[in-house]
Amino acid sequence: MTDPRLQKLAQVLVNYCLELKPGQQVRIEAAALAEPLIREAYREALKVGAHPSVRASIGGLTPIFFELANEAQLKFTPEIELFAIEKLDARLVIWADWNTRELTNADPKKMAMAQGARKQLFKRFMERTAKGEMRWVGTLFPNHASAQDAEMSLEEYENFVFGAMLVDRPDPVAEWRRISKEQERQAQVLNQVKTIRMQTRDTDLTFRCAGRKWINCDGQQNFPDGEIFVCPIEDTVEGNIRFSFPGIYMGKEVDDIRLRFVKGEVVEAHAAKAEDFLLSVLDTDPGARFVGEISFGTNYGIQRFTKNTLFDEKIGGTMHLALGASLKESGGVNESAVHWDIVCDFRSAGEVHADGKLILKDGKLLI
Amino acid sequence: MTDPRLARMARTIIDYSLALKPGDLLRIEASALAQPLVAAAFADATRAGANVLFRISLDGISESLLRLASDEQLAYVSESERVETETVTARLAIGGGWNNRSLSGISPDRLAIQRKARAAIGERMMQRRLKGELRWCITQYPTQASAQDAELSLEEYENFVFGACFADRDDPVREWQKLSSMQAALVERLNRVKKLRVEAPDTELELSVQNRRWINSDGKANLPSGEVFSAPVEDSVNGRIRFEFPAVYSGRMVTGIRLEFKDGRVLAAQAESGEDLLKAMIATDAGAARLGEVAFGTNPGIQRFTQNILFDEKIGGTMHFALGNGYPECGGSNKSAIHWDLIKDLRAEGRVFADGELTYERGRFK
Q: What residue of B is the nearest CA neighbor of A81?
């Protein structure tokens, strides 16, 4: 029998996160590893009268691609992908890996080239979701590779994941509606703020956000969720930040990232591990050096770092900053093929001031 | 380490069957079970300079669709899929799933709704192929489910599949080229023939192939292949025939088939089991009661029946006759929604006369 939490998760994804309607085209994108959840989601989508399709991937192909592809192949985007992104009403992206580090030895220049080639696709996707023409949600199917990164057994990790999603509760949708309401109130308060200053160990960063909209992330795009983010005014980010957690991007881990910003742009970047990869991501395109998003993590049900952005960026009491593409719904205008969230802990010795007023102390939001 | 036969099979598909070139857009269609062959084919396709799309199927998805979808959902074909049909230049369709009978409990009406909705896509593929805009290769990845149907262990079945594809030889491409030139000579000979007569136990069948073209199937559109086929003149088939091998359709089996023809049409049809399905198939439409294809299986590496038409129709020493749709490239004009291959074993006893001359005996050409 299927884990009943998986059935519940599929119902939340289809009925709450995506709110699928009869006749809508939804594409379920996932590694074949996530088969049990794909099957449940496919079933729920059929039940509401939608037209689900499955785009499954299998292990081991991406390393082959980066080993063998020539420049034309790296830069190739099938027209059919551009066509499909215009037609879909919803995407359900399920993350699951056989090995979260399979691209560790891939050439970063090739990876950046492939990423750059998908910029148009990514841009249209962001535009259509921002306009509300298309819904999407990204979620995770608990698997051994992610459990290993989290330093847990698969069973412990399943408990962690389903717990953070609240699908171990009798009525997860009601729980998420309650969270959504509270965060909406906090976002309204933040919408009055002009300048934010973030301070913690080796970190003193300021930015302006007057006129930008703080977005309440309540499970409509990521599941689980729990964050409130804004796109800072692009050229106003100033100062230093040192990320207490490793940055993980395209399967590569970059440790102890330190960035210095002048007029919104990264002018200095260091890392203890994989600094060359960090630099090549920053060189992907001009937008990759600017900040696309700054966010408060608000899910206090997530307390441990598990080397997975979906969960780490939501840890209650952390903040994260994304390099690259900004999110139109907040009013951001930065364009890039990159969107890389990196997390910084504010739970011990962290302070955030909004227009001079203390709004976060040692991980606790005071608004 | 990967089975070296898998690597040779992938190379045969990419370099010989599909002959991929830089800029080709290849779509690989396979179940997630076929991952090792997909990965090997992807590596070779990338080396050849092609771009690749993957359409990977998962266990239980088709079944959910067929069980839960409304008729409208079942008949739905997305615009994206139609556009994709127009843009790919090569297709690699790899068979091999978890369970070859998982759809046995689905009502044939439901299958028919889906088949009808997808017919236009199949037709466009065929048109593009005839125009030379699209190539495809249908092949098989050895799985437990198919081994079970073949009544073999997985290891035995792997030996069978790789043997049939010549992937157990040092240079499979050379083997296919050899088979191809042997068959080319055969095709030349058969293209001059007007009338074929097949004689075997319970079998005396005459048909005309005058002015029809024979096609050399040499490991390109099918891997393995090994057959030469044509389309009989539609109203020329007369006599009776018994088929030694069972015919399989949508997971159901019909055994001991006997057919009697008069002026091209099936006059009488009998079977030891599954006679109702046989009769229903023949009644599908007007063209279903006529032969669309006549062929000789020539693959010496295939000697046993495995309940998989990709292999069975190529068994060296057999002939097959398909009820239903004929191939336009052979000059065939019969139209039908079905194309159902029935296989006649001629290895033990059986002779074929071409314009009165004994040309084929006990499974071998003279």
A: B80
In this structure, what CATH number is given to the domain that contains residue B107? 3.40.1830.10
Averaged pLDDT for residues A118-126: 90
B166/B22 same-domain check = yes
Which of B54, B66, B70, B73 would best serve as a mutation to test chain A binding (most A beta carbons within 10 A)?
B73
| B117 plus B23 within the same structural domain | yes
Structural domain of residue B202, as residue ranges? Answer: 173-365
Enumerate residues 6+ apart whose C-beta is below 8 A from B45: B14, B20, B24, B26, B28, B52
pLDDT at position A103 over 90 = no
Amino acid at residue number A100: T
The two structure tokens encoding residue A291: 């900040």
- Let me know: does B217 contact B182? Beta carbons within 8 Å: no
> Residue A212: its pLDDT value, please?
96
Cα–Cα distance, A267 to B158 (Å, whole number):
58
Helix extents (H) in chain B: 4-11, 35-47, 61-68, 71-74, 79-87, 108-130, 144-149, 154-164, 172-190, 275-282, 309-312
What confidence category does residue A139 fall into, taking pLDDT thresholds of 50, 70 and 90? very high
Same domain as B93, residue B33: yes
In this structure, the answer to whether residues B35 and B108 fall within a common structural domain is yes
ipTM computed for the complex: 0.77
User: What are B239-253's pLDDT values in tens digits?
Assistant: 999 999 999 887 678
Question: Between chain A and chain B, how many beta carbons pairs sit less than 8 Å apart?
Answer: 94
A4-172 CATH:
3.40.1830.10
Q: What share of chain B is helix, strand, coil (3-state, %, to 5)?
A: 35, 30, 35
- Tens of pLDDT, residue by residue over B329-360, are 999 999 998 899 999 999 999 999 999 999 99
Question: Is B252 in the same domain as B278?
Answer: yes
Sequence-distant (6+) residues with CB within 8 A of B214 are B186, B187, B190, B191, B228, B229, B230, B330
B94, B29 in Cβ contact below 8 A?
Answer: yes
**Closest partner residue to A83 among B22, B64, B83, by Cβ?**
B83
Q: What is the mean pLDDT of residues B38-48?
A: 97
User: What sign does the dihedral B300-B306-B311-B316 (CA atoms) show?
Assistant: positive
B179 and B132 in one domain? no
- The residue among A44, A51, A58, A110 with the most chain B CBs within 10 A of its CB, best to mutate, is A58
Residues of A in contact with B38 (CB under 8 A): 58, 61
Task: Report residue A355 as tokens.
Answer: 């227009």
For chain B, the domain total comes to 2
Whether residue B109 has pLDDT greater than 90: no
Q: What is the pLDDT of residue A234?
A: 96
Q: Strand A227-230: give its sheet, edge to edge.
A: A215-217, A227-230, A291-297, A318-324, A339-345
The residue ranking higher by pLDDT, A74 or B2, is A74
What do you get for the CA distance between the two ends of chain B, in Å?
A: 44
pLDDT in tens, A206-260: 999 999 999 999 998 999 999 999 999 999 999 999 999 999 888 788 999 999 9
Q: What is the pLDDT of residue B1?
A: 60
